[in-house]
Amino acid sequence: MYPDLNNSCGRSRRLPSQHGLRLLPRTLFLLILLLAGTLTGRAQNPGTVSGKVVDSQGSALPGVSILVKGTTTGTTTNPDGTFQLQVPTTANILVFSYVGFTSQEVTLNGRSSVQVTLQEDNKTLNEVVVVGYGSLNRKEVSSAITHLSAKDLLRVGSNSPLMAIQGKVAGLSVTNTANADPNSTPNIQLRGVSSRSAGLGPLFVINGVPGGNLDNINQNEIESIDVLKGGAASAIYGTRGSNGVIVITTKKGTADSRIFYDGYTAFDFITNQLSVLSRDEFLANKRGVDLGGNTDWMKTVSNNPAFSQKHTLQFSGGNTRTNYFTSVDYRNAGGIDLRSSKEEYGGRVNINHTSANDLYAITFSAAPRYARTNLADYSGFNYALTLNPTQPVYDNNGRYAYITTGFFANNPVERAREVRSEQEIKYLDLNASFRLNLLDNLYSTVTIGQVNSSFRNYNFTPSTLTTVLNGSGRNTASQDLDENDQKSFEWTGNYALDVQKHSVKLLGGYSYQLFTSSGFDASNQLFPSNVLTYNNLGSGTWNLTSGVNGVSSYRNSSKLISFFGRVNYDYDQKYYLSASLRREGSSKFGFNNKWGNFPAASAAWRITQESFLQGIPWLNELKLRADYGVTGNQDFGNYLSLDTYSGYGYYLYNGVSYQVWGPSQNTNYNLRWEKAINFNVGLDFELLNSRLSGSLNYYIRTNKDLLGDYSVPNPPNIQGTTFANVGTMKNSGLEIQLNASVVNRNDFSYNLAFVGATNSNKFVSFSNDAYQGQTYIDVVGMPAPGSPGNIQRLRENTRIGSFYTLKSAGVDETGALQVYDRNGNVILANKATNDDRQFVGNGLPKFTGSLSNNFKYKQWDLSLFFRGTFGYDLFNTYAFYLGTPATQENANTLKSAYDGGKYARLTNAATYSALSDYFLESGSFVKLDNVTLSYTQPLKVKFLQSVRIYATSRNLATFTKFTGGDPDLIQVNGLYPGVNNSLSYYPSTTQLLLGLQLTL
């Protein structure tokens, strides 16, 4: 043994004895041997390491990423889970990572073969969910929030990234009635309609900045999307949280360098198209005169298929302290109409830096985007439905035919080719944050952001257009510019404390946002040439000769200032409580209501943490939640609570024109935000070794003080309406989300996800203490020909979207529509009055659902996504106007007018414009909405890690009884669902998308 060099009695150290000195060389020699052995062991790591990766059940895992730590050297496992990797002699640690599993580091210590078992990541407990001004592990969440990662998004070639989550979130309705228009944007609504005149869409928070620009995001940039549905989750955003909050987080850089490319080409083919009479059918049914031509107008005005392409290149890298993520993309897309197109260039840079001592962290993000578009002329398809098929496109001289007769009198090919309607779009999003870590459990963050958008519109109609040549003879041009700017400053402080089984997290903050909108427009006519189009408006002489100004401009702004706080508490990871309060002031509100309070509270109980549920092998997680929150809606125009003046026209006095000014609105000093009172109760669960997981939510939301124009007596009021807080609406529903790992074998897996939601709606009241009035209003006026009137009634204690028309009693022997009068007697529809109308159906869906099926076999992946909407009616506007023999002469009709069906029986023009439930049809449908097949090939090439090729088809098949085309083309969001009150028609398409992804 070695001698004790210290005095055991505590005396001073003595010099080593001669015997001890003799032992020193021996000790040093042993230490040298030990060190040399260690160095030799590292140096002798074999050049090749092989092995196998399996899951907790011993099943092989193909496609697992394996990297030598600190380098870019790596590989992936084969279909049988095996791998082989050349390892530098100085390397000693391998990092194994796989989606859905926890990453693992393995130390080699000279081994040439390793067996690695990856543990499944417990999604419910460990998944990070982004909430307002922070993030939580899912086990800590006590409100209704749906989390989607990048791998959950659908592959779609769309203008908006939110089309990638259509049907993925229970209660979130994403609709687009013109998917194949590259400039269209979806309509988004969460948990039903919530307002009359204020905004209906949710608030978007992008990288922590409220009010972010959704159109400035490339789908490939998205890391995660969190939908805050519960009132307690969205109340932290106060006056803008009433319609829910969607939080989008973009990708960040990593310590490992990566280059990623994604490119695709897409083809849109018209499907489920409305069919009209051919030339021969048109003449056989004596629909009009024979003009000698044979034109398929739908084919003539269509660009079928429409072609688009998109390319994305992303770079990421850095180290553990400083990293970056850069993305650039290019998209060029054409619509199925002759004119529309969009070409855009975009990019994003995210930079993150953490100081060496973790004292502070800095983030910076910049995202510019530029687009040039040609806007669609939706009327082209309207013309194509009704134009005489014997009418040629060109006359005998080869010029565009001048068309003056028919339901719509115009040449749609000429309009699409000759009339210019363009738009130039610029976006710039900037944000930066500085986080100071004062203590391990105390930090403060300052975030600044700017969201800027610019839209410049260009329009020109040449003098050579046949309708101009035969009309005014004047060419016309205009330009207008709309710019929007949002600047924000936010400070937050966070403190966390853990004491034994108690955990507390505190948040406090301040927010300031300034919104500015400005713009101008200028127009003129009678230009000396068509060459300069809209580029020299001053050369037109019309404004001068006619005394028209032709120029206008505007500028307005608003401010939001907020103070907010939140406390999260949990006891023993079993009981969770959260409470928040936001006090917010808005310059939009009336003098007496500038500030409002928005409280919220939620609680959760992880029942499986209780002793009485321990030891149940099939029950992995069970959590009961409840939350309550008050949110607001201030999405309406500026200055509506102030005294404003505007021009009342021009008047001559002594030969001089003077513009008269006066009050432009009734001032409402009591104007305030809409208020939504939200209650939600939910249950989260994981069963069968987490192979089945999901959540249930039941919600009730009552919207009070609805904003809208309210009729008032005139006089004493200056105007006949006042914008005021009047009315109450209520929505309730049940939501379910299920995820199941049905099969999980060595080479094959099958995962299933189901999303479903119900919605029950009631418009409670039109009146309040200050405004007492009507109990209903008739809405959705139908256009000419004829005078059809309104088709829906918005009435107290009634579901919105209620059709209020005559009730059909069939068709008589003369081909006239018969209806029931108010006494139940059968009369002709043209003899009925408004008093004979009644509630006959509803256009608001009662249930929406989707089913995702994901299959994986070795390197092959297949996903099938079904989506459906059920329990509602649609008014067949096209059949009403164009689908019966009674349709006006010299106009084409749908084939339904002569196919022997119900609409073919309406031959009597006397009842042509009578609104009844004869034209109501079930709108329920199921779609095979998205199918994606892909093949991924891992590679051992030095500069290429993997190649993935994929093919996607969108809107592949629709199963419905609705005869008016694709039921998805009729809007079901908003206050007037289930009816298209115009003949605007843009056909549905099936999209085929072929893509390639490279990972370097």
From TrEMBL:
Domain named TonB-dependent receptor plug is located at 139-245
Q: Which GO CC annotations does the UniProt entry carry?
A: cell outer membrane
Please state where this protein is localized. Answer: Cell outer membrane
What is the predominant subcellular site recorded for this chain? membrane
- Coiled coil ranges: none
| tRNA-binding recorded as keyword | no
Q: Which UniProt keywords apply?
A: Cell outer membrane, Membrane, TonB box, Transmembrane, Transmembrane beta strand, Transport
Which branch of life, at top level? Bacteria
Residues covered by the TonB-dependent receptor-like beta-barrel domain = 374-936
Membrane topology term reads: Multi-pass membrane protein
What family is this? Belongs to the TonB-dependent receptor family.
Name of this protein? TonB-linked SusC/RagA family outer membrane protein
